[in-house]
UniProtKB/TrEMBL annotation, chain B:
<keyword id="KW-0276">Fatty acid metabolism</keyword>
<feature type="domain" description="Carrier">
    <location>
        <begin position="2"/>
        <end position="77"/>
    </location>
</feature>
<comment type="similarity">
    <text>Belongs to the acyl carrier protein (ACP) family.</text>
</comment>
<comment type="pathway">
    <text>Lipid metabolism; fatty acid biosynthesis.</text>
</comment>
<comment type="function">
    <text>Carrier of the growing fatty acid chain in fatty acid biosynthesis.</text>
</comment>
<feature type="modified residue" description="O-(pantetheine 4'-phosphoryl)serine">
    <location>
        <position position="37"/>
    </location>
</feature>
<keyword id="KW-0444">Lipid biosynthesis</keyword>
<dbReference type="InterPro" id="IPR009081">
    <property type="entry name" value="PP-bd_ACP"/>
</dbReference>
<keyword id="KW-0596">Phosphopantetheine</keyword>
<keyword id="KW-0275">Fatty acid biosynthesis</keyword>
<dbReference type="Pfam" id="PF00550">
    <property type="entry name" value="PP-binding"/>
</dbReference>
<comment type="pathway">
    <text>Glycolipid biosynthesis; KDO(2)-lipid A biosynthesis.</text>
</comment>
<keyword id="KW-0963">Cytoplasm</keyword>
<protein>
    <recommendedName>
        <fullName>Acyl carrier protein</fullName>
    </recommendedName>
</protein>
<dbReference type="InterPro" id="IPR003231">
    <property type="entry name" value="ACP"/>
</dbReference>
<dbReference type="InterPro" id="IPR020806">
    <property type="entry name" value="PKS_PP-bd"/>
</dbReference>
<dbReference type="InterPro" id="IPR036736">
    <property type="entry name" value="ACP-like_sf"/>
</dbReference>
Amino acid sequence: MSAELFSLAGKTALITGASGGIGAAIARALHHQGAAVALSGTRESALATLAAELGERAHVCPADLADPKAADALIAAAEAALGRIDILVNNAGLTRDGLALRMSDADWQTVLDVDLAAPFRLSRAALKFMLRRRSGRIVNIGSVVGSTGNPGQANYASAKAGLTGLTKALAQEVASRGITINLVAPGFVETAMTDALPEDQRKALAAKIPLGRLGRPEDIAAAVAYLASDEAAWVTGAILHVNGGMAML
Amino acid sequence: MSEVAEKVKKIVVEHLGVDEAKVTPEASFIDDLGADSLDTVELVMAFEEAFGVEIPEDAAEKITTVKDAVDYIEKQKAE
Protein backbone atom coordinates (compact mmCIF):
# COMPACT_ATOMS: atom_id res chain seq x y z
CA MET A 1 0.00 0.00 0.00
CA SER A 2 1.25 3.40 -0.94
CA ALA A 3 2.28 5.70 1.86
CA GLU A 4 1.35 8.63 -0.34
CA LEU A 5 -1.80 10.51 0.62
CA PHE A 6 -4.53 10.70 -2.05
CA SER A 7 -2.84 8.12 -4.25
CA LEU A 8 -5.02 6.63 -6.98
CA ALA A 9 -2.45 4.04 -8.05
CA GLY A 10 -4.20 0.98 -9.45
CA LYS A 11 -7.54 2.79 -9.71
CA THR A 12 -9.55 3.50 -12.83
CA ALA A 13 -11.61 6.58 -13.64
CA LEU A 14 -14.10 7.63 -16.31
CA ILE A 15 -14.29 11.39 -16.82
CA THR A 16 -17.05 12.86 -18.98
CA GLY A 17 -16.54 16.18 -20.68
CA ALA A 18 -12.81 15.54 -20.63
CA SER A 19 -12.24 17.72 -23.69
CA GLY A 20 -13.30 20.82 -21.76
CA GLY A 21 -11.11 22.96 -19.50
CA ILE A 22 -12.24 21.59 -16.15
CA GLY A 23 -12.66 18.03 -17.45
CA ALA A 24 -9.15 17.94 -18.87
CA ALA A 25 -7.73 19.26 -15.59
CA ILE A 26 -9.62 16.57 -13.68
CA ALA A 27 -8.29 13.89 -16.04
CA ARG A 28 -4.75 15.18 -15.60
CA ALA A 29 -5.06 15.27 -11.81
CA LEU A 30 -6.49 11.75 -11.47
CA HIS A 31 -3.92 10.43 -13.94
CA HIS A 32 -1.14 12.21 -12.06
CA GLN A 33 -2.30 10.50 -8.86
CA GLY A 34 -1.85 7.16 -10.61
CA ALA A 35 -5.28 6.30 -12.03
CA ALA A 36 -5.91 4.84 -15.45
CA VAL A 37 -8.38 7.17 -17.14
CA ALA A 38 -11.09 6.89 -19.79
CA LEU A 39 -11.65 10.25 -21.43
CA SER A 40 -15.13 10.92 -22.74
CA GLY A 41 -16.55 13.83 -24.66
CA THR A 42 -17.99 14.78 -28.00
CA ARG A 43 -14.78 16.10 -29.57
CA GLU A 44 -12.78 13.00 -30.36
CA SER A 45 -9.69 14.81 -31.67
CA ALA A 46 -9.38 16.89 -28.47
CA LEU A 47 -9.69 13.69 -26.41
CA ALA A 48 -7.03 11.97 -28.52
CA THR A 49 -4.69 14.94 -28.01
CA LEU A 50 -5.18 14.76 -24.25
CA ALA A 51 -4.70 10.99 -24.23
CA ALA A 52 -1.45 11.41 -26.18
CA GLU A 53 -0.27 14.02 -23.67
CA LEU A 54 -1.02 11.69 -20.75
CA GLY A 55 0.66 8.73 -22.45
CA GLU A 56 0.09 5.41 -20.73
CA ARG A 57 -3.10 4.60 -18.82
CA ALA A 58 -5.28 6.84 -21.01
CA HIS A 59 -8.18 5.70 -23.17
CA VAL A 60 -10.54 7.63 -25.43
CA CYS A 61 -14.27 6.83 -25.20
CA PRO A 62 -16.23 9.39 -27.25
CA ALA A 63 -19.92 9.84 -26.45
CA ASP A 64 -22.66 12.36 -27.11
CA LEU A 65 -24.62 12.42 -23.87
CA ALA A 66 -27.48 14.32 -25.48
CA ASP A 67 -28.46 10.88 -26.79
CA PRO A 68 -30.29 9.02 -23.97
CA LYS A 69 -28.85 5.71 -25.16
CA ALA A 70 -25.27 6.96 -24.97
CA ALA A 71 -24.92 6.55 -21.20
CA ASP A 72 -25.22 2.76 -21.05
CA ALA A 73 -22.99 2.40 -24.09
CA LEU A 74 -20.34 4.68 -22.57
CA ILE A 75 -20.24 2.76 -19.28
CA ALA A 76 -19.89 -0.51 -21.22
CA ALA A 77 -17.12 0.96 -23.37
CA ALA A 78 -15.24 2.34 -20.36
CA GLU A 79 -15.60 -0.92 -18.41
CA ALA A 80 -14.15 -2.70 -21.43
CA ALA A 81 -11.29 -0.21 -21.85
CA LEU A 82 -10.39 0.03 -18.16
CA GLY A 83 -11.38 -3.43 -16.93
CA ARG A 84 -13.66 -1.76 -14.37
CA ILE A 85 -14.71 1.74 -13.31
CA ASP A 86 -13.66 2.64 -9.76
CA ILE A 87 -14.32 6.35 -10.15
CA LEU A 88 -16.98 8.07 -12.26
CA VAL A 89 -16.68 11.82 -12.69
CA ASN A 90 -19.85 13.34 -14.12
CA ASN A 91 -18.34 16.53 -15.45
CA ALA A 92 -19.91 16.93 -18.90
CA GLY A 93 -22.25 19.85 -19.14
CA LEU A 94 -23.37 22.62 -21.40
CA THR A 95 -25.15 25.96 -21.17
CA ARG A 96 -27.88 27.55 -23.28
CA ASP A 97 -28.17 30.88 -21.51
CA GLY A 98 -31.03 33.29 -21.93
CA LEU A 99 -33.63 35.03 -19.83
CA ALA A 100 -36.36 32.61 -18.86
CA LEU A 101 -39.10 34.65 -20.54
CA ARG A 102 -37.39 34.09 -23.86
CA MET A 103 -36.07 30.58 -23.23
CA SER A 104 -37.26 27.93 -25.67
CA ASP A 105 -38.38 24.49 -24.55
CA ALA A 106 -35.50 23.06 -26.56
CA ASP A 107 -32.91 25.13 -24.68
CA TRP A 108 -34.46 24.12 -21.37
CA GLN A 109 -34.59 20.45 -22.30
CA THR A 110 -31.12 20.16 -23.81
CA VAL A 111 -29.50 21.48 -20.65
CA LEU A 112 -31.62 19.27 -18.37
CA ASP A 113 -30.84 16.24 -20.56
CA VAL A 114 -27.08 16.65 -20.69
CA ASP A 115 -26.43 18.23 -17.27
CA LEU A 116 -28.86 16.22 -15.14
CA ALA A 117 -30.39 13.20 -16.93
CA ALA A 118 -27.06 12.00 -18.32
CA PRO A 119 -25.33 11.94 -14.90
CA PHE A 120 -28.32 9.99 -13.57
CA ARG A 121 -28.14 7.45 -16.39
CA LEU A 122 -24.35 7.11 -16.14
CA SER A 123 -24.54 6.66 -12.37
CA ARG A 124 -27.31 4.06 -12.69
CA ALA A 125 -25.25 2.05 -15.18
CA ALA A 126 -21.95 2.38 -13.29
CA LEU A 127 -23.52 1.55 -9.93
CA LYS A 128 -24.57 -1.90 -11.16
CA PHE A 129 -20.89 -2.76 -11.43
CA MET A 130 -19.83 -0.85 -8.31
CA LEU A 131 -22.47 -2.65 -6.20
CA ARG A 132 -21.04 -6.00 -7.18
CA ARG A 133 -17.56 -4.89 -6.24
CA ARG A 134 -18.74 -3.23 -3.02
CA SER A 135 -16.72 -0.13 -3.76
CA GLY A 136 -16.79 2.90 -5.98
CA ARG A 137 -16.68 6.66 -6.15
CA ILE A 138 -18.92 9.01 -8.05
CA VAL A 139 -18.02 12.69 -8.15
CA ASN A 140 -20.55 15.00 -9.77
CA ILE A 141 -19.55 18.44 -10.96
CA GLY A 142 -22.24 20.94 -10.01
CA SER A 143 -22.04 24.70 -9.89
CA VAL A 144 -22.35 27.51 -7.41
CA VAL A 145 -25.35 28.70 -9.42
CA GLY A 146 -27.17 25.52 -8.41
CA SER A 147 -27.25 27.05 -4.92
CA THR A 148 -27.37 30.77 -5.64
CA GLY A 149 -29.19 30.95 -8.97
CA ASN A 150 -28.02 33.23 -11.76
CA PRO A 151 -30.04 35.42 -14.12
CA GLY A 152 -30.03 34.01 -17.62
CA GLN A 153 -29.40 30.47 -16.42
CA ALA A 154 -32.78 29.14 -15.31
CA ASN A 155 -32.07 25.89 -17.15
CA TYR A 156 -28.46 25.48 -16.00
CA ALA A 157 -29.15 26.49 -12.38
CA SER A 158 -32.08 24.05 -12.26
CA ALA A 159 -30.01 21.19 -13.66
CA LYS A 160 -27.15 21.86 -11.24
CA ALA A 161 -29.50 22.16 -8.26
CA GLY A 162 -31.04 18.89 -9.41
CA LEU A 163 -27.62 17.31 -9.45
CA THR A 164 -27.27 18.15 -5.75
CA GLY A 165 -30.51 16.28 -5.01
CA LEU A 166 -29.39 13.37 -7.17
CA THR A 167 -26.06 13.23 -5.35
CA LYS A 168 -27.68 13.09 -1.92
CA ALA A 169 -30.39 10.59 -2.86
CA LEU A 170 -27.99 8.19 -4.56
CA ALA A 171 -25.46 8.57 -1.75
CA GLN A 172 -28.04 7.31 0.72
CA GLU A 173 -29.12 4.43 -1.51
CA VAL A 174 -25.67 2.91 -1.89
CA ALA A 175 -23.77 3.99 1.23
CA SER A 176 -24.21 0.55 2.80
CA ARG A 177 -22.12 -0.88 -0.02
CA GLY A 178 -19.10 1.31 0.57
CA ILE A 179 -19.81 3.52 -2.43
CA THR A 180 -19.56 7.28 -1.98
CA ILE A 181 -21.22 9.96 -4.09
CA ASN A 182 -20.28 13.59 -3.70
CA LEU A 183 -20.48 16.82 -5.62
CA VAL A 184 -17.93 19.52 -6.27
CA ALA A 185 -19.58 22.89 -6.92
CA PRO A 186 -17.20 25.21 -8.77
CA GLY A 187 -17.61 28.95 -8.72
CA PHE A 188 -16.49 31.01 -11.69
CA VAL A 189 -13.57 29.27 -13.33
CA GLU A 190 -11.46 30.41 -16.28
CA THR A 191 -12.68 28.23 -19.13
CA ALA A 192 -14.07 28.64 -22.61
CA MET A 193 -17.43 29.26 -20.90
CA THR A 194 -16.17 32.28 -18.90
CA ASP A 195 -13.81 33.42 -21.68
CA ALA A 196 -16.96 34.13 -23.66
CA LEU A 197 -17.88 36.88 -21.18
CA PRO A 198 -16.91 40.50 -21.95
CA GLU A 199 -13.78 41.76 -20.13
CA ASP A 200 -15.68 44.19 -17.85
CA GLN A 201 -17.97 41.36 -16.76
CA ARG A 202 -14.98 39.16 -16.00
CA LYS A 203 -13.46 41.95 -13.86
CA ALA A 204 -16.76 42.47 -12.07
CA LEU A 205 -16.87 38.74 -11.37
CA ALA A 206 -13.36 38.69 -9.88
CA ALA A 207 -14.25 41.66 -7.68
CA LYS A 208 -17.01 39.59 -6.07
CA ILE A 209 -14.61 36.81 -5.12
CA PRO A 210 -12.95 37.25 -1.70
CA LEU A 211 -9.88 35.31 -2.83
CA GLY A 212 -9.50 37.89 -5.59
CA ARG A 213 -9.40 35.85 -8.78
CA LEU A 214 -11.39 33.54 -10.98
CA GLY A 215 -10.82 29.86 -10.32
CA ARG A 216 -8.44 27.71 -12.30
CA PRO A 217 -9.45 24.29 -13.60
CA GLU A 218 -6.75 22.82 -11.33
CA ASP A 219 -8.55 24.24 -8.26
CA ILE A 220 -11.54 22.09 -9.16
CA ALA A 221 -9.51 19.06 -10.16
CA ALA A 222 -7.77 18.93 -6.77
CA ALA A 223 -11.13 18.75 -4.99
CA VAL A 224 -12.22 15.91 -7.27
CA ALA A 225 -8.96 14.04 -6.67
CA TYR A 226 -9.54 14.25 -2.92
CA LEU A 227 -13.13 12.95 -3.13
CA ALA A 228 -12.00 10.12 -5.44
CA SER A 229 -9.29 9.00 -3.02
CA ASP A 230 -9.38 6.38 -0.28
CA GLU A 231 -8.83 9.19 2.22
CA ALA A 232 -12.36 10.47 1.49
CA ALA A 233 -13.91 7.12 2.43
CA TRP A 234 -16.03 8.69 5.17
CA VAL A 235 -17.38 11.52 3.04
CA THR A 236 -20.61 10.96 1.13
CA GLY A 237 -23.55 13.08 0.02
CA ALA A 238 -21.36 16.11 0.52
CA ILE A 239 -21.29 19.29 -1.53
CA LEU A 240 -17.79 20.73 -1.69
CA HIS A 241 -17.92 24.36 -2.75
CA VAL A 242 -14.79 25.53 -4.54
CA ASN A 243 -15.49 29.14 -5.40
CA GLY A 244 -12.86 31.43 -3.93
CA GLY A 245 -15.23 32.35 -1.14
CA MET A 246 -17.75 33.93 -3.47
CA ALA A 247 -20.63 32.12 -1.81
CA MET A 248 -19.99 30.65 1.61
CA LEU A 249 -22.62 27.93 1.72
CA MET B 1 -35.51 -29.58 -7.37
CA SER B 2 -35.60 -28.10 -10.87
CA GLU B 3 -32.52 -26.76 -12.55
CA VAL B 4 -33.86 -23.20 -12.19
CA ALA B 5 -34.50 -23.72 -8.48
CA GLU B 6 -30.96 -25.05 -7.96
CA LYS B 7 -29.46 -22.06 -9.73
CA VAL B 8 -31.67 -19.55 -7.89
CA LYS B 9 -30.67 -21.10 -4.59
CA LYS B 10 -26.99 -20.89 -5.48
CA ILE B 11 -27.29 -17.21 -6.42
CA VAL B 12 -29.15 -16.40 -3.19
CA VAL B 13 -26.60 -18.26 -1.05
CA GLU B 14 -23.71 -16.53 -2.78
CA HIS B 15 -25.22 -13.08 -2.76
CA LEU B 16 -26.65 -12.96 0.74
CA GLY B 17 -24.00 -15.17 2.34
CA VAL B 18 -26.66 -17.27 4.09
CA ASP B 19 -26.67 -20.95 4.99
CA GLU B 20 -28.02 -23.14 2.18
CA ALA B 21 -30.49 -24.84 4.54
CA LYS B 22 -32.22 -21.51 5.17
CA VAL B 23 -32.95 -20.98 1.49
CA THR B 24 -36.28 -22.85 1.42
CA PRO B 25 -38.92 -22.12 -1.25
CA GLU B 26 -41.02 -20.15 1.23
CA ALA B 27 -38.12 -18.13 2.59
CA SER B 28 -38.65 -14.38 2.22
CA PHE B 29 -35.54 -12.53 1.08
CA ILE B 30 -36.12 -9.66 3.46
CA ASP B 31 -37.89 -11.29 6.44
CA ASP B 32 -36.04 -14.63 6.58
CA LEU B 33 -32.76 -14.15 4.76
CA GLY B 34 -31.74 -10.72 6.03
CA ALA B 35 -31.78 -8.93 2.69
CA ASP B 36 -32.23 -5.18 2.51
CA SER B 37 -34.03 -3.43 -0.35
CA LEU B 38 -30.80 -2.96 -2.30
CA ASP B 39 -30.05 -6.69 -1.96
CA THR B 40 -33.39 -7.53 -3.57
CA VAL B 41 -32.58 -5.24 -6.50
CA GLU B 42 -29.17 -6.87 -6.85
CA LEU B 43 -30.72 -10.35 -6.70
CA VAL B 44 -33.15 -9.48 -9.48
CA MET B 45 -30.26 -8.19 -11.59
CA ALA B 46 -28.32 -11.38 -10.87
CA PHE B 47 -31.32 -13.50 -11.92
CA GLU B 48 -31.71 -11.50 -15.12
CA GLU B 49 -28.09 -12.07 -15.98
CA ALA B 50 -27.96 -15.76 -15.02
CA PHE B 51 -31.12 -16.75 -16.85
CA GLY B 52 -31.10 -14.27 -19.70
CA VAL B 53 -34.57 -13.01 -18.82
CA GLU B 54 -35.89 -9.53 -18.28
CA ILE B 55 -37.71 -8.86 -15.03
CA PRO B 56 -39.57 -5.55 -15.26
CA GLU B 57 -39.91 -3.42 -12.13
CA ASP B 58 -43.59 -4.24 -11.49
CA ALA B 59 -42.81 -7.98 -11.62
CA ALA B 60 -39.67 -7.58 -9.52
CA GLU B 61 -41.70 -5.94 -6.75
CA LYS B 62 -43.81 -9.10 -6.45
CA ILE B 63 -40.81 -11.40 -6.12
CA THR B 64 -40.40 -11.58 -2.35
CA THR B 65 -39.63 -15.26 -1.76
CA VAL B 66 -37.35 -17.87 -3.31
CA LYS B 67 -40.38 -19.60 -4.82
CA ASP B 68 -41.63 -16.34 -6.36
CA ALA B 69 -38.31 -16.01 -8.17
CA VAL B 70 -38.25 -19.61 -9.38
CA ASP B 71 -41.86 -19.49 -10.58
CA TYR B 72 -41.38 -16.22 -12.45
CA ILE B 73 -38.20 -17.37 -14.17
CA GLU B 74 -39.65 -20.76 -15.14
CA LYS B 75 -42.71 -19.05 -16.59
CA GLN B 76 -40.53 -16.66 -18.60
CA LYS B 77 -38.34 -19.50 -19.86
CA ALA B 78 -41.42 -21.51 -20.92
CA GLU B 79 -42.75 -18.65 -23.05
